Amino acid sequence: MDKDIKEGKSLVEKLPRVSTSPGVYLMKDINGVIIYVGKALNLRKRMASYFFLPSLDSGRTDIKTGVLINKISDFETIITETENEALILESNLIKKYRPRYNIILKDDKRYPSLRLNVNDPYPFLGIVRKIKNDGAQYFGPYSSAYSVRNTLKTINRTFKLRKCRTRDFKNRTRPCLNYQMNICLAPCCLDVDKDIYSDIVKEVALFLNGKSHALVNKIKDEMTSAAGGQDYEKAAILRDKMFAIKKTLEKQVVVTNDFIDRDVIAIACRPEYTVITILTVRGGLLIGSRHFCFSETVSIESEIVRNFIMQYYIKNHYIPKEILVPVLLDDVYILEKWLGTLKKLKVRILFPKRGNKKKLLNIALQNAENELMDRVVSDSKHLDLLSRLQKIIKMDVLPGHIECFDNSNISGADPVSSMVVFKNGKPEKKSYRRYKIKTVVEQNDYAYMSEVIERRYGKGGASKPYPDLLIVDGGKGQLNIAVSILKNLGINEKVVVIGIAKKDEGKGETSDKVYMFGRANHVNIGRQGDVLLFLQYIRDEAHRFAISFHRLRRSKTTLRSVLDDIPGIGKKRKGILLKHFGGIKKIMEASIEELITLPGISSEVAENIKEKFDR
Ligand code: SF4
Question: Hey, which residues does 433 pair with through a beta bridge?
């Protein structure tokens, strides 16, 4: 900790020694953890704005800033030569420390994109969930799996790109049905001119970049020249292609008539959440929108937007010529320069006040506000549900933190357990845990339960935070085991435990039952069916998570035993194969060429593997 703090001097006393140069500041909490990173043109002025009351016209949300100020125990500043350097340093430090109160853009796998592997001599267009910096071209992200599949379907019908994945492509000995249907040139087996194929790839990229008007004109010219040369068959094919593209154009919303590519960024804030919405406009057509939601943000809007722009476009997202923003950014020229270097072309960031661009901003803003309201309403629904659950099972506190356990095994083989976590009624996947059962040799559900509960809560302080509510899958037996373990650990007063057991249809039961410790009969949920549904949802989530882990373990065990008999395969090579392919099916499908690319797999060993699976 800083010497001044140790000596009890206040942070305000540090201010006169802060430089007035540009630079980056790092806010730290009482444990020295960096909780916020920001940049400033004048470091002293910026730091002073935190420790003296912010003026109302500063745009800073008072509640949010108050939250940050209360947490700050110390700060550090780093001087830079220019504001440009400060911008880069701020971005690097946010990436490095992931401070709690900065916005951090995670990889959002909900939104699929299309990937065109242009480095391949015959590129393939596939759906991916992650955008990598691998030299391929990416398009999207699309708002849903449905919309990305529809686009891919249109492309596969209209353009003669290959439809098979690279692995199948390499192993083909004759063209597939797509060739007979005249929707693929069959580069897998036929000698297809690379220039002709590359022309198709360019057309697909034009189409996906929203340049359909230009594409239609190009095809029209080709059609006219084909008809002029009396190649009527080719002209008819081009006509069909043009109509197919025109049809997709009819479904798209025209928002501007200047055909410029632009992203429109809007922001909506409340103390609980900040939502950023980005509208993607390509060639004047609105082709998609995406929302990003952040909790615990404390920055002012212009800082959030700047941080968002830097994190979003560095992730290999397409950078358009123009970006519309909802607030005036004080470092707009530096940001434009930085984006221009990434894109290798001039990029403009505009804050429109009137006209069509302002209208576009308003559409984005409306969408951001709707998304924000949806989040807030959904939270209040969850709170209502949790407070009814609290009443039903007579808890002293709201069950804001719930943990639920389930086991999975087949006749005692490879037993595993799972723990899922729900915070404020919503799953918190990053806190889910999987356990391999270590101490129980025979199939015994109670013993599995007791082992994992002991492992989860038996680490003293390291087990914290404890949940408000612990749910076990099962009836009174499992419930009693869980309570007795918590009692042994001395935390049974802190955690409420319930069991949820399946209905016994043989006994005429119509719904699952909830058990509480010390009660002979199950709890009467009454008409609050949604509370029972919520508990079932948590139990089913634990079940799903346990089963998926069990399947993974079993497939690895099976794979291990199959690989055991192959000459030349020992523990190390087994590990390499498992790590690379992840399952038997993929190893079986792998070609000798693919196998020998792995470290330690010689052509002799690869042949042994092939022979084993061919047999
Ligand atoms: S014809 Fe060949 S290249 Fe085209 S999709 Fe079928 S297998 Fe792939």
Answer: 419
Residue closest via CA to ligand 1's atom 6 equals 176
Q: What would the pLDDT profile of 506-523 be if each residue is shown by its tens digit?
A: 888 888 889 998 888 888
543-566 mean pLDDT = 76
d(C-alpha 274, C-alpha 292), whole Å:
8
CA of 174 to the centre of ligand 1 (A): 8
- Phi, psi dihedral angles at 7 (to 5 degrees): -80, 0
Please name the residues in contact with 557: beta carbons below 8 A apart, sequence gap of 6 or more: 413, 414
Checking if the pLDDT of 250 tops 70, the result is: no
Q: At residue 403, does pLDDT exceed 90?
A: yes
Reply yes or no: is the peptide bond before residue 465 cis, omega within 30 of 0. yes
Ligand 1, closest atom to CA 184?
4
Pocket lining for ligand 1, CB < 6 angstroms? 162-164, 169, 172, 175-176, 178-179, 184, 186-188
Q: How far is the CA of 146 from the centre of ligand 1 (A)?
A: 24
- Look at residues 373, 539, 376 and name the one whose alpha carbon lies nearest to residue 469: 539
CA of 479 relative to ligand 1 center, distance in Å: 57
Taking the C-alpha atoms of residue 207 and residue 216, their distance in angstroms, rounded to an integer, is 9
Length of the chain: 615
For the chain, give the mean pLDDT: 84
What is the model's pLDDT at position 5? 43
Q: What are phi and psi of 504, to 5 degrees?
A: -100, 95
C-alpha 115 – ligand 1 centre gap (Å): 18
Mark 340-377 as b/e (b = at least 16 C-beta within 10 Å): eeeeeeebebebbeeeebeebbebbbebbbebbeebee
**Residues 197-232: tens digit of each pLDDT:** 999 999 898 888 877 778 888 888 888 888 888 888
- Residue 49: Cβ-neighbour burial (10 angstroms; 0-12, 13-18, 19+): middle
Over residues 528-539, mean pLDDT: 88
DSSP letter for each residue of 453-486: HHHHH-SGGGGPSPPSEEEEESSHHHHHHHHHHH
Tell me the range of 247-251, 296-300, 483-487 where mean pLDDT is highest.
483-487
Q: Report the nearest-CA residue for atom 5 of ligand 1.
A: 163
pLDDT grade for 252, boundaries at 50, 70 and 90: low
Place 8 in a pLDDT band, splitting at 50, 70 and 90.
Answer: very low
DSSP 8-class letter at 104: -
Probe ligand 1: pick from 165, 178, 185, max atoms within 8 Å of CB?
178
Q: Are strands 253-254 and 137-139 parallel, antiparallel or unpaired?
A: unpaired
| Amino acid symbol at 180 | Q
Domains of the chain plus CATH, in order, are 3-97 (3.40.1440.10), 262-373 (3.30.420.340), 401-552 (3.30.420.340), 565-614 (1.10.150.20)
User: Residue 583 C-alpha to ligand 1 middle, in angstroms?
Assistant: 25
The secondary element (H helix, E strand) that includes residue 607 is: helix 603-614
Which residue's C-alpha comes closest to atom 8 of ligand 1? Answer: 164
How far does residue 217's CA lie from ligand 1's centre (Å)?
28
Ligand 1 centroid to Cα of residue 151, in Å, is 19
The highest-confidence range among 413-422, 555-564, 582-591, by mean pLDDT, is: 413-422
Atom of ligand 1 nearest to the CA of 185: 4
